[in-house]
């Protein structure tokens, strides 16, 4: 078990963040361990031709064979709620070369019992290896993820954060932690991740360093960093991954609501049981974002939807009034 001890001040200071670099690095698990994250399989199979044009040996070597670990320095804790990929990658480039060997050994040796050959060879010049890794990740992001996957994934991550923030505001920390993941439990100021990943229990005082929660598409339960000395972070599975489907199953719409509002607006309300962006909704319905915006404008004016800006994304959701219509 891994335990975070939080004071009242630590609890009040806890925050959420969406990290594009984290998604890029953890997403490399899709290539090293195909079939583990099945809801992303279709997307990544479409990306395979682009991926195979890159330095796949180096990129795949960043993921451990036996437990899917990645070195902590590749997923630095976000310094803001919505960092850019470039700003996060700059932190990787600035990682001290003299610490690289320890990072890799801590990641790979306990379970794989050896370093990946490409990384082991690169330790002869750790500064150069860090640069090669950062360049490979930049190419992977720009060539594979940024064009189509990230614009679809980002609103899902943001919608998750909006949902969790609402739970925290309305129901408190205990309800939030219970809703985040089955591995998490909260008792008497201690947040526990129930996972047998180390031979001994470890308790980490947050001690005014802040605790950040970050959703991801690429874990099957709550996780944290390998090193206990890293800044406290809990990474958990994002909700609403079905929204990534190319042709999602639209929820049923009550006939009376369709007669009242018309089919397009009724379908939008059916989809807005979870927060979503205009782009997401347009993709689900197969129409233009402009058409969706017009309908959302009417629904917002009649208080049937709410909207909130989350970073650069505006997310819409059904209002309590609309929820009553679904009875």
Strand order of the largest sheet: 3-4-1-5
Q: Number of DSSP strands?
A: 10
Q: Which outline best applies?
A: globular
- Contiguous helical run count: 15
The main pleated sheet reads as: 4 strands, mixed
Tell me the span between the first and last alpha carbons. 42 Å
Helical residue percent band:
40-55%
Topology overview:
Layout: E1 2-5, H1 8-13, E2 15-16, H2 20-27, H3 29-32, H4 41-51, H5 56-61, H6 85-93, H7 100-112, H8 117-122, H9 126-171, H10 173-180, E3 184-187, E4 190-193, E5 202-205, E6 212-216, E7 233-237, H11 255-261, H12 263-271, E8 276-277, H13 278-285, H14 289-301, E9 305-310, E10 313-318, H15 320-326
Parallel strand pairs: 1-5, 2-6, 6-7
Antiparallel strand pairs: 1-4, 3-4, 8-10, 9-10
Helix pairs in contact: 2-9, 4-9, 6-9, 9-10, 11-12, 13-14
């Amino acid at each position: 078990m891994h335990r975070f001890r939080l004071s009242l001040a630590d609890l009040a200071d806890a925050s959420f963040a969406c990290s594009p670099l984290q998604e890029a690095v953890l997403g490399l698990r899709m290539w090293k361990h195909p079939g583990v994250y099945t809801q992303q399989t279709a997307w990544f199979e479409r990306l395979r031709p682009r991926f195979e044009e890159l330095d796949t040996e180096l990129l795949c070597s960043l993921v451990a064979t036996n437990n899917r670990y990645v070195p902590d320095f590749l997923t630095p804790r976000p310094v803001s709620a919505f960092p850019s990929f470039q700003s996060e990658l700059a932190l990787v480039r600035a990682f001290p070369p003299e610490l690289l060997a320890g990072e890799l050994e801590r990641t790979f040796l306990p379970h794989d019992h050896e370093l990946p050959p490409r990384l082991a060879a690169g330790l002869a010049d750790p500064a150069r290896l860090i640069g090669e890794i950062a360049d490979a990740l930049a190419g992977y992001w720009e060539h594979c993820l940024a064009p189509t996957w990230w614009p679809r994934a980002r609103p899902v991550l943001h919608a998750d954060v909006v949902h969790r923030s609402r739970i925290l505001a309305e129901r408190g920390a205990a309800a939030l932690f219970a809703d985040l993941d089955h591995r998490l439990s909260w008792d008497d100021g201690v947040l526990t991740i129930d996972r047998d990943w180390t031979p001994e229990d470890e308790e980490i005082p947050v001690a005014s360093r802040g605790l950040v929660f970050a959703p991801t598409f690429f874990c099957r339960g709550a996780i944290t960093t390998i090193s206990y000395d890293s800044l406290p972070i809990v990474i958990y599975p994002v909700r609403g991954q079905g929204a990534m489907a190319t042709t999602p199953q639209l929820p049923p719409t009550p006939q009376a609501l369709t007669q009242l509002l018309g089919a397009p607006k009724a379908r939008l309300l059916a989809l807005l049981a979870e927060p979503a962006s205009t782009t997401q909704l347009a993709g689900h319905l197969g129409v233009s974002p402009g058409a969706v915006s017009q309908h959302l404008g009417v629904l917002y004016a009649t208080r049937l939807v709410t909207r909130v800006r989350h970073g650069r994304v505006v997310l819409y959701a059904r209002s309590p009034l609309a929820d009553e219509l679904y009875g």
